[in-house]
Amino acid sequence: MARARSLRLEPPAARHWDFPRSVAALTVVVDFAAAHGVAAGTVLDGTGVGEAALADPAALVPASAELAALRNLRSAMPGRVALGVELGARYHVTSFGILGFALLSSRTLLDAMNLALRFLDLSYAFSSPAARVVGEEVVVELDAAALPPDLARLLVERDAAAVATVLAELVPGGTPLASVELAFPAPRDAARHEALLGSRVRFDRPATLLRIGVDQLHRRLPQGNPHSQALAEELCRQVVAGRRGSGGLVEELRLWLTRNVAHDVTMATAAAAHAMSTRTLRRRLTEAGTSYQALLDEVRRSLAEEMLGTGVLDVEDVAQRLGYAEASSFVHAFKRWRGVTPARFRRDLA
Question: Which residue has the higher pLDDT, 71 or 7?
Answer without folding.
Answer: 71
